[in-house]
Automatic annotation (TrEMBL):
It comes from bacterium (Candidatus Gribaldobacteria) CG23_combo_of_CG06-09_8_20_14_all_37_87_8. The active site is at C30, C33. One of its GO terms (molecular function) is protein-disulfide reductase activity. It holds the Pfam family Thioredoxin. Disulfide bonds join C30-C33. InterPro entries: Thioredoxin, Thioredoxin-like_sf, Thioredoxin_domain. The gene is trxA. This is Thioredoxin.
Length: 106
């Protein structure tokens, strides 16, 4: 299941979880975002016991996008204990994302 984040619920959801949260910052006007989304959703299903997968539309939630200086998309950030600990910009292969997750979920 994908958690939908907004300006209103972002802080509460990010801080009130024991599992890491992988956040996909995207926009409806971003073609690369639509390329990345199915890859992330597939991986998120496989990692559902280790992390929570979330999406934030930067057009609908500009306050959080500005706060985290999201000026290019897609951007993926991994949060632990309410803080971003790792991230990447742009479309990555499924293999690279898995390697990145394994390294950063430890």
């Amino acid at each position: 299941m994908t958690l939908i984040l907004t300006d209103k619920n972002f802080k509460k959801e990010i801080q009130n979880t024991e599992k890491p949260i992988l956040v996909d910052f995207w926009s409806a006007h971003c073609f690369p975002c639509f390329m990345l989304s199915p890859i992330l959703e597939k991986i998120a299903e496989e990692y559902k016991d280790k992390m929570i997968f979330a999406k934030l539309n930067i057009d609908e939630s500009p306050v959080i996008a500005r706060e985290y200086q999201i000026d290019r998309i897609p951007v993926v950030l991994l949060f632990k204990e309410g803080k971003p600990v790792a991230g990447f910009i742009g479309v990555q292969s499924e293999e690279l994302i898995r390697e990145w997750l394994e390294k950063n979920l430890k």
